[in-house]
Q: What sequence folds into this?
């Protein structure tokens, strides 16, 4: 115990160890935060939820902090909803049973770029006669554009950006540009000021209701932006952390410990056991790990835990069994092992209490360096399209990005965020591992 | 001066030693080859077992039989005269007969050896979706067509990596503590990330932002008509993937080997050589590199085996028309015959790697005994 404490103290002398530990600590904090802030079910819902969950998110928006680095102020998403806000809605009884409803959704637009998209969601509550609505757009300079006149069924989505007729009326400009542009300037620049969407509705039943929601999709969203399905990438980045760490840790523990124990058993029992283990290792060396994982993913299951099991199984007889064997062969002849034998210790007792613990210090650095290798293995599988079907991981974000041409289209944020997290994990564990290697195996020290 | 006679004797001895080295290596090679063949057979057998746990190989075989019977039936002139009902019944009967003939009714243990023989000869039937560039659906042809591209990329990458890292490590071991040395040590942890990961960034910088190198592929489309242009185009497409391979492994290799060389460069005989005033390149080559090479080759073998695996994604990222990219496409198309075939061919490649390195080892290390365990 004392020796361990001394080693830890020595570790403090290595700046790389401190840096590595800091990075790992940050990742662990992030993982804990993710699990506390977004419960597992909620995370799955946010990631797999379908249109309903993501409708108010912009498509392919950059992260919000991008505004710190650009001279132009890019707009975030603005959502204006009359449902929860009685002040924007006015009802006037007409006397003949019909009701006039006016919904006025006004907002200040002070950004230097155009929105990404524009959508209006109309909901009506009626028995037989559906209400009729006129949608009017008011720019800060007083211009008025009638967007559409329509009868409103229970729930309508009016994708303003896809309205070809409106595009024509705006002189060929896309609606999200034409409605926000300063008139007669080329290239178009947004006009800053207070905009208003006026929904003038006629209800043909006294009990009926009409509500409108305007979503001005921005060009920036959240901490990490959104992907092609309007999903908030932040969710995947957050939840990817505990998944990556646990996958790396479990795979590293599973494969190193089992390898170590088998090597000890092989050396201690010797003869055919040792021979058998060596032959299995030679076969295992030739088994292509990734193709076999791919085969398992295609034929059986893509669950991250099945993959973990296969990774551990394939890692049991890994090449490092030979390295451990060489160490155990030396230790086997050590006097203390002979003493244990003399007092009558059983075979398994010697293996587990005398041989294995002796090698663990040498194992610790290797073990730490192995963790990121498995984290990257998970990412590799995901990039091949074999990521876990339910859970969001960093690799799956990279995969989505790659498949949707993020590099060609210039959506660099989409690739960079998961990559940075992956490399931080890799560097954190590797730096710590290298420092540990120098502390635990002084022969490798340069002095 | 009086140097002439002592020089002549070693020459004769060297010649004799060379002859015995050849015999030793040849014998060793044969023994290793046999051992590896057995290993490959066992490895492929395990693969078959994994693949057939859900009965997939059986399904493949059944589909193949059905297709064969269908083709046979179409060629039969009597066929056209039969009614639909008769045709179906006849096909079923033929399929059952054929399955019986090919032993699909036998217990799995017996069948698995048939599969093993088929897999070892890459006789894996026909692909479901994917076609070779020459238009064939034979899995073997598809795989063999892709092999050169993979070998071209990885041989280039590995050789470059091997020689560059040895050269740099030797250089640094003589300049211990210099800025470059400390930089390499500091950069060693970056090797935690695989090649494809750096590939993404290389594409992002050199293809996406700077637009100086292609995004991927092996030659420009359309390929240049003349030979020189074609070769140049190949080279240009090779730069980024090879760089990714090298970056992903070189710092770690340099770090390990430099430490290794450092330990060896404190041996007495090196000090002796220094004291004699031998030039430093000679000391590096003959006194440090020569005795450490066997160990380096072994460690390189393990790196290589790891890199084959990374190759699959690297080829995918760079759109390189090799085995890895093929496997990626096969995954997308759920083309099981191609996937099983790829696993087998990767097993062959790994065995080949191990074999080549074993032979290298035997040439480099005179102590290797043929009879005993090699490593």
A:
């Amino acid at each position: 115990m004392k020796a361990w404490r001394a080693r830890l103290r020595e570790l403090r002398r290595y700046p790389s160890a401190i840096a590595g530990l800091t990075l790992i600590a940050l990742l662990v904090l992030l993982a804990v935060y993710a699990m506390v802030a977004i419960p597992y079910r909620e995370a799955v819902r946010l990631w797999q939820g379908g249109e309903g969950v993501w409708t108010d998110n912009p498509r392919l928006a950059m992260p919000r902090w991008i505004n710190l680095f650009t001279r132009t102020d890019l707009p975030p998403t603005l959502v204006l909803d009359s449902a929860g806000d009685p002040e924007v809605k006015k009802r006037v009884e007409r006397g003949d049973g019909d009701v006039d409803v006016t919904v006025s959704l006004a907002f200040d637009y002070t950004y230097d770029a155009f929105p990404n998209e524009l959508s209006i969601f109309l909901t009506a509550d009626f028995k037989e006669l559906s209400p009729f609505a006129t949608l009017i757009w008011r720019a800060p300079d007083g211009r008025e554009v009638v967007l559409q006149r329509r009868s409103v069924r229970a729930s309508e989505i009016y994708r303003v950006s896809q309205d070809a007729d409106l595009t024509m009326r705006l002189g060929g400009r896309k609606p999200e540009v034409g409605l926000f542009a300063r008139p007669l300037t080329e290239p178009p620049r947004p006009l800053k000021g207070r905009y208003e969407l006026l929904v003038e509705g006629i209800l043909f039943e006294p009990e009926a209701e009409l509500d409108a929601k305007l979503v001005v999709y921005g060009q920036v969203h959240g901490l990490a932006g959104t992907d092609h399905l309007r999903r908030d990438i932040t969710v995947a980045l957050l939840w990817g952390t505990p998944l990556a760490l646990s996958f790396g840790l479990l795979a590293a523990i599973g494969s190193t410990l089992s390898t170590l124990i088998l090597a000890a058993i092989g050396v201690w029992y010797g003869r055919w056991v040792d021979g058998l283990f060596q032959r299995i290792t030679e076969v295992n060396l030739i088994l292509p790990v990734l193709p076999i994982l791919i085969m398992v993913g295609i034929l059986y299951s893509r669950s991250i835990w099945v993959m973990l099991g296969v990774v551990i199984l394939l890692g049991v007889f890994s090449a490092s069994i030979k390295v451990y064997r060489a160490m155990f062969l030396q230790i086997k002849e050590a006097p203390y092992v002979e003493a244990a034998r003399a007092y009558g210790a059983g075979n398994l007792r010697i293996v587990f209490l005398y041989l294995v613990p002796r090698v663990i210090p040498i194992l610790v650095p290797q073990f730490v360096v192995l963790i990121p290798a498995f984290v990257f293995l998970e990412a590799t599988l995901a990039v091949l399209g074999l990521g876990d079907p339910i859970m969001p991981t960093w690799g799956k974000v990279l995969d989505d990005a790659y498949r949707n041409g993020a590099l060609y289209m210039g959506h660099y944020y989409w690739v960079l965020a998961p990559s940075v997290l992956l490399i931080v994990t890799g560097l954190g564990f590797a730096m710590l591992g290298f420092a540990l290697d120098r502390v635990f195996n002084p022969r490798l020290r340069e002095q | 001066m009086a140097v002439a006679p002592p020089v002549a004797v070693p020459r004769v001895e060297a010649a004799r030693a060379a002859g015995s080295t050849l015999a030793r290596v040849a014998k060793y090679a044969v023994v290793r080859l046999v051992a590896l063949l057995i290993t490959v057979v066992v490895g492929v057998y395990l693969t078959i077992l994994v693949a057939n746990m859900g009965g997939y190989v059986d399904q493949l075989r059944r589909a193949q039989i059905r297709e064969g019977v269908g083709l046979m039936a179409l060629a039969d002139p009597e066929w056209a005269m039969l009614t639909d009902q008769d045709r179906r019944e006849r096909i079923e009967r033929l399929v059952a007969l054929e399955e019986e003939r090919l032993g699909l009714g036998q217990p799995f243990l017996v069948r698995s050896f048939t599969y093993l023989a088929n897999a070892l000869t890459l006789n894996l039937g026909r692909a479901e979706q994917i076609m070779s560039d020459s238009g064939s659906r034979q899995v073997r042809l598809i795989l063999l067509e892709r092999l050169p591209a993979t070998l071209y990329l990885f041989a280039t990458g590995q050789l470059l990596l091997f020689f560059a890292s040895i050269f740099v490590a030797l250089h640094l071991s003589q300049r211990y503590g210099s800025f470059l040395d400390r930089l390499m040590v500091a950069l060693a942890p970056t090797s935690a990330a695989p090649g494809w990961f750096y590939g993404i960034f290389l594409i992002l910088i050199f293809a996406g932002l700077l637009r100086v190198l292609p995004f991927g592929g092996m030659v420009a489309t359309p390929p240049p008509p003349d030979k020189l242009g074609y070769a140049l185009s190949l080279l240009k497409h090779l730069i980024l993937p090879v760089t990714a391979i090298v970056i992903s492994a070189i710092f770690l290799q340099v770090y390990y080997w430099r430490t290794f060389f450092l330990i060896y460069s404190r041996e007495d005989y090196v000090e002796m050589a220094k004291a004699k005033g031998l030039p430093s390149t000679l000391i590096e080559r003959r006194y440090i590199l020569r005795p450490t090479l066997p160990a380096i080759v072994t460690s390189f073998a393990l790196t290589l085996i790891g890199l084959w695996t990374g190759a699959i994604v690297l080829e995918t990222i760079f759109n390189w028309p090799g085995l890895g990219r093929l496997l990626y496409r096969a995954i997308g198309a759920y083309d099981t015959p191609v996937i099983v075939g790829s696993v087998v061919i990767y097993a062959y490649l790994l065995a080949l790697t191990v074999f080549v390195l074993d032979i290298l080892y035997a040439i480099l290390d005179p102590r290797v005994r043929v009879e005993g365990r090699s490593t």
Observations:
- The longest helix of chain A spans residues 347-386.
- Chain A touches chain B through 52 residues (CB under 8 Å).
- Strands of chain A lie at 78-81, 89-93, 99-109, 117-125, 132-138, 144-151, 155-159, 193-203, 209-217.
- The mean pLDDT of chain A is 84.
